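Long-time lurker. I teach an intro course on protein structure, and each term I like to show students one example going from raw sequence to a predicted 3D structure in token notation. This year I'd like something fresh instead of my usual example. Would anyone be willing to generate the tokens for the chain below so I can use it in lecture? Attribution to the forum is fine with me.
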Amino acid sequence: MTKVDKLRERGQALEDMFFNKEDDNLVAHLKEQKEHHDQELALRSISGITNKSVLDNAIDLGITVETFGALTLIPLLKVAWADHICDIKESKVILKFAQEAGIEESSSGYKLLEIWIDNEINPNLYLAWKSYVEVLKEKLTPIEIKALHDEVIGRAKSVAKASGGFLGIGAVSSEEANVLHELDELLKISEED
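-- Reply from a regular --
Happy to contribute to a lecture. Here you go:
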């Protein structure tokens, strides 16, 4: 075999390796796209959200079918962390509501919720929840929006009042009151409803 033949052979081997690597990258990319698409369909199915950007944002934040239930507790976490401290009384109230919502202690949703209780809420997570609510409100009747409002605000107030204050004075901090007001505004029935 001549030097030119050896050079061609090695060049061909290098080219084959390059295309094998590109094939592997393409297969991995296609697999990722399929997994993302499957997650999107599953979340769409359980949430009723059809807005692709809201679904993509939820997936990017790690929200799965298993953890979706925990997403419904985001406003409670926002209230609990309003003063940058989620104390034990607030966390107990949140975990009680989680169990009432069917989030079992052994589930990944519950584990995720515990992480969110221990670590101040990610602002992007709260923004994703707000986007979810805006889309959800488009699909609900005024009576359903009012029920959602009353449930979320009632639970959020329970979290805000959990720490108490001194002799009932200051039971809700000004930071918590601001978050409650923000939630109230977001969950209100809009004029056109």
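Some talking points for your students: The chain has a mean pLDDT of 81. The two ends are 83 Å apart (CA to CA).
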